[in-house]
Design a protein that fits this description.
The complex is a heterodimer of chains A (355) and B (584). With 355 residues, chain A is an alpha+beta fold. In chain A, 34% of the residues lie in helices and 12% in strands. Chain A has a four-stranded antiparallel sheet with strand order 2-3-4-5. Chain A has a four-stranded antiparallel sheet with strand order 6-7-8-9, with no helix packed on it. In chain A, α3 runs antiparallel to α4. The relative contact order of chain A is 0.07. Chain B is built from 19 helices and eight strands. The radius of gyration of chain B is 30 Å and the shape is globular. Chain B has two domains: 313 residues, Up-down Bundle (Cytochrome Bc1 Complex, Chain C); 128 residues, no CATH class. Chain B has a two-stranded antiparallel sheet. In chain B, strands 2-3 form a two-stranded antiparallel sheet. A two-stranded antiparallel sheet of chain B has the order 5-6. In chain B, β5 and β6 form a beta hairpin. In chain B, α7 packs antiparallel against α8. Chain B is mainly alpha-helical. The chains are: A alpha+beta (355), B mainly alpha (584). Chains A and B meet through α1, α3, α4, β1 and α9 of A and α5, α7, α8, β4 and α10 of B. β1 of chain A pairs antiparallel with β4 of chain B, so a sheet runs across the interface.
Chain lengths: 355, 584
């Protein structure tokens, strides 16, 4: 190629000639027997101290209790600190000893080795190419396109079993959405008449108990089944799934501060509003509420939603408002849902608007 | 001082010592060679030369911390139970006793509080992981800034980039395993990233989690990826990385006697093997001390994962911080096209930019090689200043990384510095574009000015700090020539050759195929080297020295060079010897 021809630098005389490798300097340990002996003792002392540390490790392992006393020293257990220091000492001292040995006592003559081009010799290349072409020729892969192409096709098709085998990694959204109520990305366990309960203790929330400015982390009553409320048992993974989707925040503000969304005029009760707690960005639970502005902030990526204005995004990377849960009050004065959320909660996905 | 060379160890010779009589080692070696025939390969490699420089140690830290990760990781697997089955924790840690949590979390607490040395091993494992990734990054910077990725080492650079990617994924899968509140929040965000993938997003999420988030499969699946799949790939790639290193032989800094055709340094056996082996123990020991003294990832403080809870200041491990920062400063763009949702706000910062950055990184040596048209093998390292454009590109990429990383801590910056998080975010949205540009321009000019300074030293000598007064009252600083070795080292670099196109048209006036691409290449090449300072020619140096001697004779008023130490007793040379002194 012409590249290699004209992009090789022209030979210009080097401004300073190469003075060659500097002369070797003897070290004190090379010429002074006392220095040599001293270095030898230093190295041996490193190794000896390392042995002491190894013994200390064993002693610490068997004498220092863990369990109840895991933060006696520097917020860590005495055992962890002692084991770490003794193990570290044992290893570090071996390393220091070896390096001291290499620096003071091993030969320190620099050696010159010539490099070879990374490429093989032209002869090797030619021979390899020839072997390759003889082999290819003998196989007949070039002359028999039918054999070659069917082989390629067959090998490619074995990819199908490999891909298909992974199909049962999990059900699809469509499959579970039709299987049971409350499953799938479009649904949560919320339904008409379900009470809102406090998320840790599971007690229902009376509308009259809330004060202006309150924010309550709440959950669907179905996650706290009792004989009284009659919801079916739920635990383990199904419980986690429904917790992950059903979490809500309930806030009360001055009714005149609220700008109700279109068609949402009767979704609030006396200034009490309820929204999904799951951020519409990537699905963190939101939590930081500023009562004077009615803004709630997601601690993961700082999306900020205005709860007085249908939880519209006022700042940050989220695009959609938090889904709102339509509220009502039952005959005993407890807050209940009018229905499930009217849209999928949490992060966006491709077919979100389709269902 | 007279030298007693008889005391020098016989290994100081420049050739391998030959055994004078049959020894035990010889016997074992013969036995092994009869069966394995390794002597042929060992002959070359036992005394293989490795050049010495502190910066060559950075990759070694990565290698040894990987070994520490394997050792401590095996220990952890003996107790860790990668299951999402729920149990009541009944171990030693008071605050969480009786609480329902996954077996993964409970066994992590068990390792931390009921297995002696368990917390030490967990913390060593986590610290070694940080060290592994940090040292890979710094090693990458060293390789890039010195041009070590040029031919023939481009493929090893690509392998290194893949190692960094795999190391990062290994870190993420690893810190997600305890199923604590912090890492669970990260896993849920990852679920959001998957769902943002066009067309297949919800399928990927459901397949990975075995159904709806959180499902019961994610921890066991991450576990097998963390302890088998990725470590296997890492091991294979590390082996390939090391084999190529041995085959190419290590790069070296230019200097007296060190050229592009040789490698000067210590032999593998004994010096390099001892230094590298000793260094393994040092890395291992330092990790042990860090594991013993510095708390890391205290999952017992975060508590078990609960999908309705979150802590303020939720942040991934630092090496995942830069995509998280991009995610934070991304405007909330989302569009619905034909009824399908496209989440630009997640796709751009997570699914597009990070993979794109990795591809750009991997392509750097190929792009540079194409622009320069340089097909030679390069074994001598370049000082960053001598490749101003490359250095500027790297600093520009670093600036991008650093700003994105800082944006990942925008909440912490806002709290600690009492600033508005909104303003930080708006600032970052602009700076993420402007910062790299400014960094590029400043770095490039800085490099060129350093090149000028080098030429200054070559032509006019170094500044002695000695002020001379001439008979008519003028003051000037004395310059003295630098030593031959220093001068040689400064000039041991190539002159930049701008790629030129010739033969655009053949004899019939037909434009050669691809000539427009060639013209672009020539243009880029000219841009790349624009304003670079070339080393002086022999004639220029000759003239400058001649001129300097003349000048000194005129203004110095002294008939010998001076460095200020001739008369105060601190001089290790006589006045007459001064010009021969080296070291500057």
């Amino acid at each position: 190629m012409s590249d290699s021809h004209h992009n090789t630098p022209a030979v210009v005389e080097e401004p300073i000639p190469n003075p060659g490798l500097p002369a070797h300097h003897w070290r004190p340990t090379d010429v002074d027997e006392r220095a040599e002996k001293r270095a030898e003792r230093q190295v041996a002392a490193f190794f000896g101290l390392s042995m002491v540390c190894a013994v200390l490790f064993v002693v610490a392992y068997f004498t220092l209790e863990i369990g109840d006393n895991f933060d006696t020293f520097a917020g860590l257990g005495a055992s962890t600190v002692a084991l770490g220091l003794s193990l570290g000492g044992a290893l570090l001292l071996i390393g220091l000893g070896i390096i001291q040995w290499a620096r003071k006592l091993m030969g320190d003559h620099e050696i010159i080795e010539m490099r070879h081009p990374a490429a093989s010799s032209d002869e090797d290349r030619a021979a390899t190419l020839e072997a390759l072409s003889i082999g290819t020729e003998e196989s007949g892969i070039g002359r028999r396109p039918l054999v070659r192409n069917t082989l390629l096709g067959a090998v490619a098709m074995t990819g199908l079993p490999a891909v298909v085998l992974l199909r049962d990694l999990g059900p699809t959204n469509a499959e579970i959405a039709n299987a049971e109520e409350g499953l799938g990305l479009q649904h949560t366990i919320w339904k008409q008449g379900m009470r809102l309960v406090r998320d840790v203790v599971g007690t229902p929330i009376r509308a009259s108990e809330l004060e202006i400015g309150d924010l309550v982390n709440a959950a669907p009553e179905a996650l706290f089944p009792t004989e009284e409320n009659g919801y079916p048992e739920i635990e383990g993974i199904p419980l986690q799934v429904q917790k992950a989707k059903g979490a809500i925040i309930v806030v009360k503000m001055e009714p005149q501060d609220i700008t109700p969304g279109e068609g949402r005029e009767n979704w609030s009760v006396n200034g009490i509003l309820c929204y999904s707690k799951i951020c519409t960005h990537v699905g963190c639970p939101i939590s930081l509420y500023e009562r004077t502005t009615h803004h709630v902030l997601c601690p993961c990526h700082q999306s900020t939603f205005d709860l007085a204005d249908s939880a519209k995004v006022v700042f940050g990377p989220a695009h959609r408002p938090l889904p709102q849960l339509p509220l009502a009050v039952d005959e005993e004065g407890y807050l209940i849902a009018q229905s499930d959320f009217t849209e999928p909660i949490g992060a966006s996905y491709w077919e979100r608007e389709k269902q | 001082m007279s030298l007693d060379t008889s005391k020098v160890a016989s290994t100081n010779g420049t050739t391998a010592a030959t055994a004078s009589k049959p020894s035990k080692i010889g016997g074992v070696a013969t036995w092994a060679d009869d069966r394995l025939g390794l002597a042929g390969a060992m002959r070359k490699n036992l005394r293989k030369v490795f050049p010495d420089h502190w910066s060559f140690m950075l990759g070694e830290i990565a290698l040894w911390s990987f070994v520490v990760l394997l050792l401590t990781g095996v220990f952890l697997t003996l107790w860790f139970n990668p299951s999402m089955g729920e149990i009541h924790y009944e171990g030693s840690y008071d605050q969480l006793r009786g609480i329902t949590m996954s077996e993964a979390m409970a066994s992590t607490l068990n390792i931390s509080f009921d297995v002696r040395g368990g917390l030490l091993m967990r913390q060593m494992h986590h610290w070694a992981a940080m060290l592994f990734i940090a040292s890979m990054m710094v090693h990458l910077l060293r390789v890039a800034f010195t041009g070590a990725y040029r031919k023939p080492r481009e493929l090893n650079w690509v392998i290194g980039c893949l190692l960094l990617l795999l190391g990062t994924l290994e870190g993420f899968t690893g810190y997600s395993l305890p199923d604590d509140l912090l890492s669970g929040t990260g896993v849920r965000a990852a679920d959001g990233f998957l769902k943002a993938t066009p067309v297949v997003g919800s399928y990927m999420s459901f397949f990975l989690f075995g159904g709806e988030f959180p499902g019961d499969s994610i921890i066991p699946r991450l576990y097998i990826v963390h302890v088998l799949l990725i470590p296997g790939l890492l091991l294979g790639l590390i082996a390939a990385h090391m084999l190529l290193l041995v085959y190419h032989k290590h790069t070296q800094w230019p200097g007296p006697g060190r050229t592009n055709d040789n490698v000067v340094g210590f032999p593998m056996l004994p010096v390099y093997a001892a230094k590298a082996g000793g260094f393994f123990f040092i890395v291992f020991g330092v990790t042990a001390i860090m594991g013993g003294l510095l708390t890391i990832n205290p999952v017992w403080k975060f508590g078990p994962y609960d999908p309705t809870k979150v802590t303020a200041g939720s942040q991934p491990d630092w090496y995942m911080g830069w995509p998280d920062g991009l995610l934070r400063i991304m405007p909330g763009w989302e569009s619905v096209i034909f009824g399908y949702t496209i989440s630009w706000n997640v796709m751009i910062p997570i699914l597009i930019v990070p993979p794109l950055m990795l591809v750009i990184l991997m392509l750097l040596p190929f792009i540079e090689g194409w622009i320069t048209g340089d097909k030679r093998d390069h074994h001598l390292l370049q000082r960053p200043r001598n490749a101003p454009t490359r250095t500027a590109v790297m600093v520009s990429l670093m600036t991008f990384y650093g700003l994105a990383w800082a944006a990942g801590g925008n909440d912490l910056i806002a709290i600690k510095l009492d600033l508005s998080i909104n303003q930080i975010t708006y600032f970052m949205r602009v700076m993420i574009f402007l910062g790299p540009l400014i960094a590029f321009i400043v770095t490039r000019r800085w490099c060129i000015s350093l090149q000028r300074h080098d030429n200054e030293k070559l032509l006019h000598g170094y500044e002695t700090g000695v002020i001379m007064r001439s008979p008519d009252g003028g003051y000037s600083e004395r310059h003295l020539p630098i030593s031959d070795t220093a001068a040689y080292t400064l000039t041991a670099r190539d002159r930049d050759e701008i790629y030129t196109v010739d033969g655009d048209t053949d004899s019939n006036g037909v434009t050669a195929p691809g000539s427009r691409v060639q013209a672009l290449r020539a243009k880029l090449s000219a841009k790349m080297y624009e304003h670079n300072v070339q080393k002086p020619t022999a004639a220029e140096i000759e003239e400058a020295h001649h001129h300097a001697e003349h000048e000194h004779a005129l203004e110095a008023g002294l008939d010998h060079p001076a460095d200020g130490h001739q008369f105060d007793g601190h001089s290790d040379h006589t006045v007459e010897e001064a010009p021969l002194r080296g070291g500057h």
